[in-house]
Each structure stands twice: as C-alpha cells, then as structure tokens.
Write a structure and sequence with these properties.
By secondary structure, the chain is an alpha+beta fold. The protein is built from 7 helices and 5 strands; from the N terminus they run αββαααββαααβ. The protein folds into 2 domains: 49 residues, no CATH class; 61 residues, no CATH class.
C-alpha cells in the first residue's frame, strides 16, 4: 500500500503546520494509503477523524482525477490547503487549474469520498 504524504505526519501538519516524518510503528491504512505518525497521540487523533487529516482523494491530483479520469499521486511540494482541507497536485499546471476554479474540484472530492462520519471506522485499519 503506498505511503501517504511521502511519510510525513498528517496530524502534525494539520495542527501545527510543520512537516514531521512519521514512524512506521504508528502507521495506519486509510483509503488506499498508509499514513505514518510522529507518535501514538497523533495516530489516535487521526483515527478519531481521518478525513480531517488525510489529503483529499488520498493525495491524488484532483484536477487530473476529474478532468482526465486519471489517478495520479500529488506531491507535497505542489500542495495547498483550501477550506481547511489539504489538496496535492502533480504539477504547477494542475495546481493553477485548481486555483482558477476550486469549487469544481472540492465539490467533486466531497462526492467521491462520500463523506459519512459513520463510515470512518470501516475505512481505517491500524497496522
């Protein structure tokens, strides 16, 4: 299973805006990615609300997903936070397309992820 956020802790990033490398012992699988955390505390925060911390579309580029039907991993160097949610892009070109019409892609991501808090427990598995 691919590692999400290039192995950095999504909770530390979301809560403190700092890129901290995660550790395998605190790994969690969620929506097709393995996320690593700096500590057990961050892991527990993630498990309580994984979609709050995980990038939209599991880190796939939303522009390519919706405009070209491609599942292409985004890179953190092209990431943005929009309305408290992280979006990753594979290039400056797709990031710029998102910036020109973010509602198009954020609405699509919400539908694709089928946000239903009752389903959260079935989407995460501690490793």
């Amino acid at each position: 299973m691919p590692v999400g956020l290039e192995g950095y802790c999504p909770v530390t990033l979301t809560e403190r805006g700092v890129w901290v490398e995660g550790r395998a012992q605190w790994g969690v699988r969620h929506r097709g990615r393995t996320y690593l955390f700096a500590s057990e505390s961050q892991q527990k925060s993630f498990l309580a609300d994984p979609d709050r911390f995980a990038p939209a579309l599991s880190g796939d580029d939303p522009v390519l997903a919706f405009d070209a039907g491609k599942s292409t991993p985004g890179q953190r160097r092209y990431g943005v936070t929009y309305q408290s949610r992280m979006y990753l892009f594979s290039s400056t070109h797709t990031r710029d397309a998102f910036a020109a019409n973010p509602q198009r892609y954020t609405a699509g991501a919400m539908v694709a992820e089928n946000h239903n808090p009752a389903d959260a427990a079935t989407r995460s598995v501690v490793r």
